[in-house]
Amino acid sequence: MAIDIQLKRSYTSGSVPGASNVLVGEPVLNLADRLLYTKDNTGNVIVISSGFAGNIASLAFQAANVAASYTVAGVAGNVSNIQLASGISSSGLLTTANITELTNLYFTNARSRASISIASGNVNGKGYYDSTTGVLSINAANVTVSSSAPTDPYIGDVWINADTAVEYLYFSDGTSFQWAEVSAAGTGGGSSSNYGDSNVQLLGYATNANVALKANIADLKTANVGELTNLYFTNARTIAAITNTSLSNLTVSGNVIASNFVGNISITGNVVGTSANVSLVAGSYTATFDNTGNLTIPGTFVGSGSSLTGVALTTTGSWTVTTGTNTYSITVPASGTYQIWVRGNIPNGIIAYSATAVVTNTNVPVVGVQYAWVYNGGGSPIDFTSIPNQFIGTANTIVRSSVAPSATTNRFDFGINNSSGSSQTIYWGYVTL
């Protein structure tokens, strides 16, 4: 009668039998992973077979310490040898990133560049190779005019003796490098280069830096001829030549036009025009001075205007008003008449101030009138707490006094409370009347 023998087994992938459940030499199967386990004589559970499709002729693990178990799954085909050397992980793919380089070297730019060279016979030729950068340089032929032969020439270079006008070519005969005469002085060198006495004269000071030699040694230009007593034109030289030039009389019939003018025009005397108006045109703007003494400008006067008379000068600024109550000031010159203003407009808050002030000194009252207004419909997040106190004056009344209400009456102080929760900008200004 046939006897069926079944081994201990598991259908769970990754399940490894415990050492207490296996006898020494007893086979145990994991059918899900296709692995066959047993226990060795030291009490360790080890894998003794795996269910790869195909044939594995050799599976060698060379390492100082091998783990208790290995899982190698999903390999199809025939594998003749798998050998993991010491220091190589058994997980993942073997690639050039984790295989140590030995006699078969990996590619690098430095190795590629170092493997390329130019033969030593070409040192005086047309090429030069830099093995560090990998750059190959090809040298063009040089033409030199000088009293002595150039140093470090290349094959194909031409030298013209500036003293004798004899032309030489640098070449190699296979054993040496030398200069060979290709034309005598004043004889010409054939159709491709003609250096006859009738069409060129090369002086002793001519060099490759200041003489450009082309076909038929043509085209001596200012770009390659040195400057001596005959100076080249430059804008700077032209400006210097006319700077500080004085004209006793300048008579112009028509317009005086200056394009891209830089500098100042100073006039001592009178500019006389016979027409009703004299106009100064700059771009699209025209300033007109008429024969009744009026000057009309289309834009805004720029400058301090400290020397102007008969005009109203405006000075403006702003305060950064921090939260809480603080004092901010406007200081005007100690003698003058002024229109002073302060204004601020923030969410839910507006303040405005206007005053006309006659300031005669810094320690006497200011004659004038002032007005201040605060918007209170939004909780007054910005508010005046005080305004200047040096004003005196009653309409149609003479006021007599000897003491000023503040020590410096040309300084106008404002108490401002900011309860908005952040700093606000308040603008101020005054017009000198």
Map the helices and strands:
Blueprint: E1 8-10, E2 28-30, E3 35-39, E4 45-50, E5 59-61, E6 82-84, H1 109-114, E7 127-130, E8 135-138, E9 143-146, E10 158-161, E11 167-172, E12 177-183, H2 235-242, E13 277-282, E14 285-290, E15 295-296, E16 313-321, E17 324-331, E18 336-346, E19 349-359, E20 366-374, E21 382-386, E22 391-392, E23 411-418, E24 424-432
Parallel strand pairs: 1-2, 5-6, 9-10, 20-22
Antiparallel strand pairs: 2-3, 3-4, 7-8, 10-11, 11-12, 13-14, 14-15, 16-24, 17-23, 18-19, 18-24, 19-20, 21-23
Commentary on this structure:
- By secondary structure, this protein is mainly beta.
- The protein folds into four domains: 7-106, no CATH class; 140-243, no CATH class; 274-301, no CATH class; 313-432, Sandwich (Immunoglobulin-like), CATH 2.60.40.
- It is 3% helix and 32% strand.
- The chain has two helices and 24 strands.
- The strands form seven sheets. Strands 16-24-18-19-20-22 form a six-stranded mixed sheet, with no helix packed on it. Strands 1-2-3-4 form a four-stranded mixed sheet, with no helix packed on it. It has a four-stranded mixed sheet with strand order 9-10-11-12, with no helix packed on it.
- A hairpin with a 5-residue loop joins strand 10 and strand 11 (167-172).
Short précis:
By secondary structure, this protein is mainly beta. It is 3% helix and 32% strand. The strands form seven sheets. Strands 16-24-18-19-20-22 form a six-stranded mixed sheet, with no helix packed on it.
